[in-house]
Amino acid sequence: MDSFGEILKNTRESKNLDLDKVARDISIDKRYLQGLEDEDNSSFPGEAYMIGFLRNYSSYLGLDTNLMIKLYNNKKIQESPVPVELIQKPKSKWLVPAIIIPIVLVVVVVTVISVLLINNKKVDNEDDSVVVSSKIKNKQYELDDSKFTQRVYKGDQILVPTENENKIILTVRDTLSSFGLDTPSGVFYTDLSEEQEIDITGDSNPDLIVYVSDLSYTDENRGVEVSILLRHGGNVVAGTSPTENVYSDDIPLITDLKSSHPQKVIIEDTRAYPFTLNASFLGSCVIRDKIDFNDSIETYFVRGEVFTATAHNSIRLWLSNSNTVKCTIIADTKSFDLDIGVPGKVLVEDIKWIKDVDGKYKLVVIELD
């Protein structure tokens, strides 16, 4: 059977994909993809990273991820060194006792003295043990407008603010092999190097973006290094239906649009409803966004960061370097990727609902002059 590296390379080449395109599509650096195909462990900062990248790369190519992980583990076992006991010459049977007996006597004496000292300070030690145990109690963290990045452990709680000043409590359920988070709408699992949108209120709109940068496949006590970002706007709207508060009266007619650029229709329907924009960054970029009738906000992003916003009617974007941004629109549970720029181009775009002359609604992307 072929090795996992050969399978990755052969499958990629059969699909006429180059490493640069794959790296852009799944946001994994090209050198790590090359390291997987070459089966070069030294290319990765740790085994957890290699396994996580192998899982994502295999899934992207449509391969059986469990089989690929099994092939990797089989190769690791084959390359393990021969136990030293099998190649080491046996030592004299009298040499070991001659060394061990004096050491044992010394250890016994030291142990007796230590026990006596410990008994004399029993009360102090009990007090100290209380202090130590308090250090490993579960913690609570509260999200705010900034990105939350922290190593969390099983049982830790994350408090999410809502507009009515209550807090939604999320509990870390699993930290082994994947990051499990208990929410009011169910349990969500996120794998290593995976970015996931989470709807914690059950209204079909994403409330959080979760990204896992480090975890262990063998020791849950190591916890998980996780980044969590509130959706654009700061607070979660608890109990809101996805079809509420749509400003249908404010949707412009197609005849009122003023742009020399053609419209790109994303979706067409008999009604307008909220939609979500997700943007991930492959490099540095300044974004200014205006959501519906709110004030515009300007934010600087770097490689690896994400931006999300939900609008009822429209989102206007100013992008300083549009080629560094990968944008996806989610509407009516469907996803649409946007091709919105060339290297170094400053771009201004509207993503908005419009009303056609036949009465139907269209969600369109329009580049502004």
How many extended strands?
Answer: 19
Low-confidence residue ranges: 123-135, 238-247
Helix/strand/pairing category:
alpha+beta
As a percent range, the share of helical residues equals: 25-40%
Q: What percent of residues are in strands?
A: 25-35%
Total helical elements = 8
- Large-scale geometry: globular
In angstroms, what separates the terminal alpha carbons?
57 Å
* Arithmetic mean pLDDT: 80
Radius of gyration: 28 Å
Taken in chain order, the helices and strands follow as HHHHHHHHEEEEEEEEEEEEEEEEEEE
Biggest β-sheet: strands ordered side by side in the sheet: 10-19-18-15-12-13
Largest sheet: 6 strands, antiparallel
Explain the overall architecture:
Mean pLDDT is 80; it is low at 123-135 and 238-247. By secondary structure, the chain is of the alpha+beta class. The longest helix is centred in the N-terminal third of the chain and has 26 residues, at 95-120. The strands form four sheets. Strands 10-19-18-15-12-13 form a six-stranded antiparallel β-sheet, with no helix packed on it. Strands 1-3-4-5-6 form a five-stranded mixed β-sheet, with no helix packed on it. It has a four-stranded antiparallel β-sheet with strand order 2-9-8-7, with no helix packed on it. Helix 4 (47-60) packs antiparallel against helix 5. The chain contains eight helices and 19 strands. The radius of gyration is 28 Å and the shape is globular.
Provide a compact summary of the structure.
27% of the residues lie in helices and 31% in strands. With 369 residues, the protein is an alpha+beta fold.
